[in-house]
Amino acid sequence: MSTFMSRNDLLLLIGFTIAVLTMPLWLAPFGAGYPDLLNRFAIFAIFAIGFNILFGLTGYLSFGHAAFFGVGSYAAVWSFKLLSMDALPALLFAVVISALFALLIGFLSLRRSGIYFSILTLAFAQMSYNLAYSVLTPITNGETGLQLTLRDPRVLDNALFEAGPGLPSPTLLGMPLQGFEAFYFCAALLIVAFFLAQRISGSPFGMMLKGIKSNQTRMHYTGFNTRPYTLAAFVISGMYAGLAGGMLAIVDPLVGAERMQWTASGEVVLMTILGGAGTLLGPVIGAWLIKYFENIFSAINDVILARFWSFLPDGVSDAMVQITSKFVGDGWFLTLGLVFVLIVIFLPGGVMEGVRRIADQFRPSRRSGRPANQARPHPRPAE
């Protein structure tokens, strides 16, 4: 992977870094500036970025990435229970275990492509969910969920520190990870994950993945073996999912099998398509939009709606409350579905396609009707 970064890539990384680090400020007016939601913005953005490496670059649609997400969460909590409450060993453990699991699942699933690959990944994910829910209860604690207890050995912490009263909380080199400290830790990991995805996308390896997506059959006919590249993309994507799962275990140490359900896999697919598959910023924007809908729109009730429509006459206000209540609260999925339908119909490339269309309107090449780098034709001299 080349160490050289183009000017546009560097500006994109700087802009993304500033946007992520200032999220508590510019999201506060939208009611999303509190740490718990900001953590989820960062965590699921990493999940979507990793999924985009497989789906957006390579074209392989996986319906089983929640399995790696859940495995990462379980691995992180076991690190807390057995070793230390420090976040770094937990995340390392989560990434390594998820990578090994993704290597196994990818080796088997990538024997097929297209819809057969998608069905295989879905089947493996459901098998993983059922194993976690009912079969591997000594490891996962079944439907109750895996959680911290006072009886956990935590050999490293107990050897170095005196145990305090009550359940411990995750730390980073001794610093408690709570509130905005936890957010900025998640934000730093998001920036690093985005940078690595940016470098992968622009590297020869990334170009090879894009070639596989464009026409894998032609690459086979030229004698090129695409299997190692698709397997590497699958494993890297699984590592991103495991990292995100480990981060969620840091901010929410109670881990249940629901993190491995097929609905969680479908959610990351929706995030990527909504924002724009194959783009760098698209999956991040898609993750933020869906988590915003899930946490903000679902919390709106009739009292809030009545206050919002109070400027209207009484009869009209009551009618508007009745209509809009179907799209918030428990019905927020209806709003999300309508947004998704509108984007698929009018912006098949996701939100980023809309951004590109707007940007194209302000480019000089569009206004002049000629590419900016195309020279004006010189008149032919008279013969």
Please provide a brief summary of the model.
This protein is 68% helix and 1% strand. By secondary structure, the chain is an all-alpha fold. A two-stranded antiparallel sheet has the order 1-2.
Overall description:
The protein is an all-alpha fold. It has 2 domains: 16-277, ABC transporter involved in vitamin B12 uptake, BtuC (Orthogonal Bundle); 300-365, no CATH class. The protein is built from 18 helices and 2 strands. The protein has helices spanning 7-21, 23-26, 35-58, 66-82, 87-109, 115-135, 137-140, 155-160, 179-202, 204-221, 227-251, 262-275, 282-296, 302-308, 314-324, 332-346, 351-361, 364-368; strands spanning 171-172, 175-176. Strands 1-2 form a two-stranded antiparallel sheet. Strand 1 and strand 2 (175-176) form a beta hairpin. Helix 1 (7-21) runs antiparallel to helix 9 and helix 4 (66-82) runs antiparallel to helix 5 (87-109). The longest helix has 25 residues, at 227-251. The relative contact order is 0.16.
Task: Provide the fold topology.
Elements: H1 7-21, H2 23-26, H3 35-58, H4 66-82, H5 87-109, H6 115-135, H7 137-140, H8 155-160, E1 171-172, E2 175-176, H9 179-202, H10 204-221, H11 227-251, H12 262-275, H13 282-296, H14 302-308, H15 314-324, H16 332-346, H17 351-361, H18 364-368
Antiparallel strand pairs: 1-2
Helix pairs in contact: 1-9, 3-9, 3-11, 3-12, 3-13, 4-5, 4-11, 5-11, 9-10, 12-13
